[in-house]
Amino acid sequence: MFYVIDDNKGVRESLCLLLESYGFKASHYSSGAAFLRDVKADDNGVLITDINMPDICGLELIAQLRHARNIIQAILMTANVTNQMLAAANQLGVPVLRKPFSPTELFVCIEQLSRRHRP
């Protein structure tokens, strides 16, 4: 299951359509707070979240999930990356995709996550 979180409706809907066209299940949320209201402690899957959002940034969202010991894996995306963001993402062990990115870049990132988290 993929969870796409972005305050830009076009981005989140197009990412879900892309994922679904490859046979994946995907749902989307307009904010990190909306996602946190729905997520359960034992949910798993891959979170694809924007870093810069009005209510809670993607980095903080992932930190909260990790603190709650949620097992969801994550990918961050942003149009405006900074060294500070990259360092924070690295500390969380989360890859960062720079917008705009191609479907190939997304699926390479997903495959790398998959390899990293195989039992």
In short:
By secondary structure, the protein is α/β, with parallel strands linked by helices. It has helices spanning 9-21, 32-38, 58-67, 83-92, 103-116, and strands at residues 2-5, 26-29, 46-50, 73-78, 96-98.
What does the radius of gyration come to? 13 Å
CA distance, first residue to last residue: 18 Å
- What structural category arises from helix and sheet content? alpha/beta
User: Roughly what percent helix?
Assistant: 40-55%
Q: What is the element string, with H for helices and E for strands?
A: EHEHEHEHEH
**Helix count from the secondary structure assignment:** 5
The poorly predicted ranges are none
What's the total count of β strands? 5
Largest sheet: 5 strands, parallel
Strand content: 15-25%
Could you say which overall geometry the principal axes of the C-alpha atoms support?
Answer: globular
Short key terms for the protein model shown above:
119 residues, alpha/beta, 5-stranded parallel beta sheet
Summarize the structure in words.
- This protein is of the alpha/beta class and 119 residues long.
- It contains five helices and five strands; from the N terminus they run βαβαβαβαβα.
- The protein has a five-stranded parallel β-sheet, sandwiched between helices.
- The mean pLDDT is 92.
